[in-house]
Amino acid sequence: MLKKIFKVVGIVLGAGLLLVVSFVVWKLASYERDFTGVRLPNIHASQDPAVIAQGEYLVHSVAHCSACHGPASVVTHHQLPSNLQDMRGGYALRAGPFGTFYPSNITSDRETGIGAVSDGQLARVIRHGVGRNGRYAAFMGLVVGNMADEDLTAIISYLRTLPAIRNAVPDDEWGIVAKLISANFNPHPNRPIHYVPAGALSRERGEYLATGPAACSGCHTPTDPMNGFAPTGPLFSGEGHAEPDPTDSAYEFVVPNLTPDATGVMTGWDEDQFVARMRAGRVHAGSKMPWENFARMTENDLRSIYRYLHTLPATSHDVGTSRRHAG
Ligand code: HEC
Ligand code: HEC
User: Which residue ranges of the chain lie beneath pLDDT 70?
Assistant: First the structure.
């Protein structure tokens, strides 16, 4: 009788173990899912100098591509490359158990850069987060803001002008946590966005920038990292979970609430104070915010962003001090 019970228990345990193991194996493999089916956007580089100049502004300022794709030493110290055309990549973005990710060489070198990557493939990784290899490009998918065709075209047009620099960059190394939750990481669908071109100062331009190519909303909105960073609360009400300060592990950062509420950082600021703060740049060495890029934004764009943020519904969400003792 006892023997029989042991046998049954053994079978049940064995089957359970097998299930768990196959679940983990299946999960671990899902990060290699193939997304070549995601259509290449119908975007083509232009040689119009005005379009290229618009792209340069986006790459080095609003959309802050150079905060990651500059030379590794420059990115480490949160500088902008002294030669803005040096987008050789190679910085190691260490994200703990999520893995280590390497911003690519996006100069026009054919072997180690994007010289042999088509306009459509470039547009696809920027808009949908699907790399040239058809896999989910984790960082690109999570950090690049949505943008209108006009801006996407401008960015690609500018990238085509970057002189070739030979610099082979390693492939991303997905960590165990990223692999386990990778089933939650999916390419962005087409997300229609109302394009408001640069020029006049307006709340609408501010909304386009802050929720679009500048991606302020991506960092300043609460999200669930275990669920593909899906929003879990009102836009711009501040990110709830803390992230370690890479320059000193005794400290951590939380991203503040930017809505016009007393629990937000901006309640006391008028438009001029906001512009002055954005121009002043980085205060905390380890902050992930690309202050150096944003400090270069035009006066009208910064003022437009203020006007937009100031008309958001006030949301009470006290995340505490932006940089504080860990734990
Ligand atoms: C926060 C860092 C970060 C920012 C900002 C960023 N990238 Fe990337 N980029 C990466 C990383 C890391 C990779 C490697 C693939 C991955 O993990 O997404 C990458 C890969 C790429 C690739 C190669 C994709 C492929 O097919 O292999 C291109 C092209 C690119 N980025 C362009 C851009 C452009 C243009 C911008 C600005 C609109 C930008 N990136 C902003 C980190 C960043
Ligand atoms: C990559 C993430 C990220 C992005 C993108 C980002 N921020 Fe931040 N932001 C942070 C973090 C982290 C802090 C807190 C640490 C600090 O002050 O640098 C912060 C702080 C701030 C502060 C408070 C500064 C202070 O003096 O207390 C303002 C204002 C702000 N961000 C505005 C913006 C605006 C406007 C945008 C878009 C143009 C933006 N942020 C985009 C991460 C981000």
Answer: 27-28
Ligand nearest to the CA of 264: 2
| Ligand 2, atom 42, residue with closest C-alpha | 289
- Answer whether 49-184 and 203-325 agree in fold: yes
pLDDT in the model for residue 41: 97
Distance in Å, CA 326 to ligand 1 centroid: 29
pLDDT tens-place string over residues 239-282: 978 999 999 999 999 999 999 999 999 988 999 999 999 999 99
Q: What is the pTM of this model?
A: 0.94
Domain boundaries, the chain: 49-184, 203-325
For ligand 2, atom 11, the nearest C-alpha belongs to 255
Atom of ligand 2 nearest to the CA of 282: 18
pLDDT value, residue 13 = 84
User: How far is ligand 1, taken at its centre, from the CA of residue 139, in Å?
Assistant: 7
Specify the CATH number for 203-325; select among 1.10.260, 3.90.25, 2.70.50, 1.10.760. 1.10.760
Q: Would you state the pLDDT for residue 9?
A: 83
CATH topology of domain 49-184: Cytochrome Bc1 Complex; Chain D, domain 2 (1.10.760)
Substitution site in 57, 78, 104 for ligand 1 pocket (most atoms within 8 Å of beta carbon): 104
Helix/strand/coil (H/E/C) assignment for every residue in the chain:
CHHHHHHHHHHHHHHHHHHHHHHHHHHHHHHHCCCCCCCCCCCCCCCCHHHHHHHHHHHHHHCCCHHHHCCHHHHHCCCCCCCCCCCCCCCCEECHHHEEECCCCCCCCCCCCCCCCCHHHHHHHHHCCECCCCCECHHHHHHCCCCCHHHHHHHHHHHCCCCCCCCCCCCCEECHHHHHCHHHCCCCCCCCCCCCCCCCCCHHHHHHHHHCCCCHHHHHCCEEHHHCCEECCCCCCCCCCCEECCCCCCEEECCCCCCCCCCCCCCCCCHHHHHHHHHHCCCCCCCCCCHHHHCCCCHHHHHHHHHHHHCCCCCCCCCCCCEEECC
45 Cβ inside 6 Å of ligand 1? no
